[in-house]
Amino acid sequence: MRFLTLLNLAKCKPSRLLNTRYFSFTPHLCTKEFSDRTLQFLLEDKEFTSINTAALHIRSWGHNIYILQPSMKYKAKSRQSTTANLQLSESIALIETLDKWKVVGYGIYTLKTMGGTKYLYGTGNIEKITQEVKECQATAVFVSIDRLSLSQLDGMQEKFHVPVYDRYSIVLQIFKAHAQSGAAKLQVALAEIPLLRYRKNDSELFKERERSLRAELQVLEQQRKLVKKRRLALDIPTVAVVGYTNAGKTSLIKALTRDDSLKPRNQLFATLDVSVHHGVLSNQMQVLYVDTVGFIADIPTTLIEAFRATLNDALDAHLIIHVCDRSHPDWIVQCKTVMQTLKDLDVSDSKLKSMLTVYNKCDLIDGSQNQITTVQVENTNNDQSQSEDTELLEQKQDSANLIHVSCKEGTGLSNLATLIENNLLVMSDRVTTLFRVLQGGELYNVLLRESDVETTYVDDENPQFLYMKCLFSKVAFAKLKARYGTKYMISANSK
Hints:
CATH class of the largest domain: Alpha Beta
Number of domains: 3
Oligomer: single chain
Strand content: 15-25%
Shape: elongated
Helix content: 40-55%
CATH superfamily of the largest domain: P-loop containing nucleotide triphosphate hydrolases
Structural class: alpha/beta
């Protein structure tokens, strides 16, 4: 029988003495081990692996890379604040994320348009690039655009005499290297089908594999629905944490939950598996923080599309937090990329409007441009454009839902926790109720089990009784009210 353990609902020791509401789970939505041999065989298919290795020129000993960074003469409106050197910095980071790959040279060359010529550039520039590739002894070239056409790919490989990669193929290899769970590996395997079909120019060759992968994903989808049903049964508010890759999503969750088992890495796409982490707010309300795969600019939609089901499940939360690395020189483009990706994933306008925006790494803002990259940022007259973009971006964001933090220094985290708490009380339809109950009595024990107990204090007039301020969902409150009536309720406020 095929199974993927998505959520373990076994009882665990409560985190607070008075709040004995049982809650336990495994962090990952999918286990790292496969119990189904068919699934394992599908992902480790030697024939397909051989085709994949040949098509993408994969070598176990890595590559020495020359990066060709196009600089667009006419920028899209959403990219006005960026520079070619900032884009080059990200390209270098992508290559350095891959084990045994290193950058041995790079060049920035202006482009009027992405299409048209066989070599992407004219004869003069392509000859210069060819010479640079030869001089730095590169074993491969990374052209940092989303996808090269087949004619461009073939033409440039013929000219340079080494394999040529675009952003699609590089990001896909990073995904494959970082995928740990069965879910992530399945989704990466599905994401590589369009690339290989495009490179091999053969739609029939991959039909059977794609059909098999989608069948396995259907099984995963059923398991995901089961997890969602169980999660809803727990009646615990959820917060989806999204952001550009390496913006500090995992670091923020660690800071909010104080979970020392989380090990954030300063690496692009360190998180591919959607994972869930338990936290408790100051009012004792329990919350689930959902960590998600990071987004990035200039990749084909087919890459994110393969993760759509998992992401949509995560984004179906009570609240979304968008983490932005405010210290990064290209933070404006990164923020815009995340917003556009969320829209492409059909996140509702109401969810986007209520979304909290967290400007992370505020401790690095002063002098940050020298810390982010080893490539010196080009000296352009770009300041006015960036200032205008900053103003427009921040105007679009509700100032009440915008906060600066530093996960490293702890700055702003208490204010953020309060903001999360206030929003969740509304978004998750929480009811705050004050009870007067007999210590150790039936209702006392029911409240400990079935509510989040915010405060308790002894009745001065009769020490046998306690006042208990509790949080419920509206459904749970209605059930309790139907069972016990209003006799023990002092007050009830719906948020």
